[in-house]
Amino acid sequence: ARRSWRERLSGSSFARGLSSLFSRNPKLDDALLDELETTLITADVGIEASTSLVEDLRKRMHKREFADAAALLAALRKELVMLLAPVQRPLDVSGRKPYVVLTVGINGVGKTTTIGKLARRYRDENRAVMLAAGDTFRAAAVEQLKTWGARNSVPVIAQGQDADSASVIFDALQAARSRGADVLIADTAGRLHTQGGLMDELGKIARVLKKIDAEAPHEVLMVIDGTTGQNAVSQVRQFRQIVGVTGLVVTKLDGTAKGGVVFALAREFGLPIRYVGLGESATDLRVFEAEAYVDGLLP
Ligand code: GDP
Predict the structure, then answer these.
(1) Tens digits of residue pLDDT in 45-89
(2) Cβ(11) to ligand 1 under 6 A?
(3) Which residues belong to any copy of the SRP54-type proteins GTP-binding domain (predicted)?
(4) Across the beta sheet with 99-104, what order do the strands follow?
(5) Is 253 known to sit in a ligand binding site?
(6) What is the residue with the minimal CA distance to atom 12 of ligand 1?
(7) ipTM, 2 decimals?
(8) Neighbour-count burial for 228-253, b at 16+ CB within 10 Å, e otherwise
(9) Burial of 89: CB neighbours in 10 Å, binned 0-12, 13-18, 19+
(10) Is 126 exposed, middle or buried (CB count within 10 Å of its CB: 0-12, 13-18, 19+)?
């Protein structure tokens, strides 16, 4: 399994940059650290995180803590794992019944795909899963979810066009309760250009869910696109002003993602990264593991 993380992450500019930096068996000097800093910044790690990481390593190098570049690389690995360890907190959906997962995030980030993958995962764990087609703004999103549900024998609660999202999700939670479902995953709209509208809508959804279960939603899972770099970071910042995000999914880390955004997110928010998307198939949505992720990036 470890090898597959590496296969998927090796194309990122993070992995390629470090590989070219260290494969030359470089001299341990300030120029190497400067290059390392540039590599991290260009890989979306973020300026602050990159700078503080490299300055720490530089001090240690000046104290002659590292015998060679390999020792520096080992220290870097340790630092990177330490950055990500606090956000490795997997989602446990077994505590409540039904466990209500509200998914949020802007259009195109892979939200619908992620819902399908999650439903598969929980179903394969022998849980009864239901979906709520709460992105009532996009007819295509409702259809996509319905088709997926039909193909995988997972019930999807939906209403007609222009239905009220909160009403769909309220009905879905009632249905999930009466059918004894274990997990309800609700989709929501993702148009950030009307922030006020989205805020009202998500607020209303949370309020109506609480009429049925005072603690619902149990997870507000925000899906972000790993290829969008610092833009993904600002999306999280914006959504956190709208709704109490409790966990993140970072998708598309396999493709053209630079790989570093996960560190920037961990440092800025400390929110649990529940899953990462390393490809388009259902099994490519992995439970986030700090060590596997870092080892997938390093040479
Ligand atoms: P939504 O608008 O947020 O609901 O986005 P969709 O779920 O429709 O996904 C948009 C595109 O991203 C689709 O083509 C997905 O197959 C693709 N996608 C989603 N997650 C991943 C991933 O982890 N890796 C890759 N390579 N593609 C992904």
Answers:
(1) 999 999 999 999 999 999 999 999 999 999 999 999 999 999 999
(2) no
(3) 272-285
(4) 156-157, 129-132, 183-186, 99-104, 219-225, 247-251, 273-277, 285-287
(5) yes
(6) 110
(7) 0.98
(8) bbeebbebbeebeebbebbbbbbbbb
(9) middle
(10) exposed
Q: Give the tens place of pLDDT for each residue, 246-279.
A: 999 999 999 888 999 999 999 999 999 999 999 9
What is the tens place of the pLDDT at every residue in 171-219? 999 999 999 999 999 999 988 766 788 888 999 999 999 999 999 999 9
Task: State how far the alpha carbon of 104 is from the alpha carbons of 137, 150, 290, in Å.
Answer: 13, 23, 23
Q: Are 186 and 98 spatial neighbours (Cβ–Cβ below 8 Å)?
A: no
C-alpha atoms less than 13 angstroms from C-alpha of 240 in its C-beta half-sphere: 15
Cα 182 to averaged position of ligand 1 atoms, centre (Å): 25
Residue 251, amino acid: T
Instruction: Output the six-digit token pair for 164.
Output: 């009220």
Q: Which two tokens stand for residue 156?
A: 């999807």
Q: Determine if residue 108 is labeled as part of a ligand binding site.
A: yes
Cβ of 235 less than 6 Å from ligand 1: no
Q: How far is CA 82 from the centre of its chain?
A: 18
Ligand 1 atom having least distance to the Cα of 113: 7
Expressed in angstroms and rounded, the spacing between residue 66 Cα and the centre of ligand 1 is 42
* Six token digits for residue 40: 């991290």
